[in-house]
């Protein structure tokens, strides 16, 4: 049975509604795609605006005068310290670190695109805490390396 044969005997209003629905279903997706805004740039893209790390500073052991972002990886969270926030610690989940770094102003990156990281693992830490710290360290390091942010690992005494 052909399409036109299937429509025979139907009221004219039915045919009009069917054709209107078909045209509307084709036109609406085309309109919505034209008005869609491009997605905002991701954190890794935003961080590329920061100059690459100064090689002399990225290999130096940070002192108390370290001016770039400073991360402290713990079992339950990651602390972010910057000179911008008067050394107030911002507590983050490992997956939030890159976005937090991307929101920092250019003045927070004195040495270029490099962060100092201290892994805070106590000798008395439980096995579960040690696993959580390794997991957080892996997430943070992977995100930073993917965004081409140099890491200056701080060794604990």
Give me a quick take on this structure.
Strands 3-2-1-4-5 form a five-stranded mixed β-sheet, covered by helices on one side.
Feature tags:
single chain, 157 residues, alpha/beta, 2 domains, 5-stranded mixed sheet, 5 strands, 41% helix, elongated
Characterization of the model:
The chain is built from 6 helices and 5 strands; from the N terminus they run ααααβββαβαβ. The chain has 157 residues and is α/β, with parallel strands linked by helices. The mean pLDDT is 82. It has helices at 3-7, 12-35, 43-47, 55-58, 97-102, 127-146; strands at 70-73, 78-81, 90-92, 114-119, 150-154. The chain folds into 2 domains: 3-35; 43-154, no CATH class. β2 and β3 (90-92) form a beta hairpin. A 5-stranded mixed β-sheet has the order 3-2-1-4-5, with helices on one face. 18% of the residues are buried. Helix content is 41%, strand content 14%.
């Amino acid at each position: 049975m052909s399409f036109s044969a299937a429509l025979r005997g139907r009221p004219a209003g039915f045919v009009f509604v069917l054709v209107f629905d078909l045209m509307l279903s084709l036109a609406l997706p085309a309109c919505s795609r034209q008005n869609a805004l491009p997605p905002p740039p991701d954190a890794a893209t935003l961080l590329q605006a920061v100059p690459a790390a100064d090689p002399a500073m990225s290999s130096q052991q940070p002192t108390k005068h370290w001016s770039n972002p400073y991360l402290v990886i713990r079992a339950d969270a990651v602390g972010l310290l910057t000179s911008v926030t008067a050394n107030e610690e911002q507590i983050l989940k490992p997956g939030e670190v890159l976005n937090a770094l991307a929101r920092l102003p250019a003045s927070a990156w004195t040495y270029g695109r490099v962060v100092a990281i201290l892994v805070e693992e106590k000798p008395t830490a439980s096995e579960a805490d040690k696993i959580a710290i390794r997991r957080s360290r892996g997430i943070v390091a992977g995100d930073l390396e993917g965004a081409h942010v140099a890491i200056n690992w701080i060794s604990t005494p």
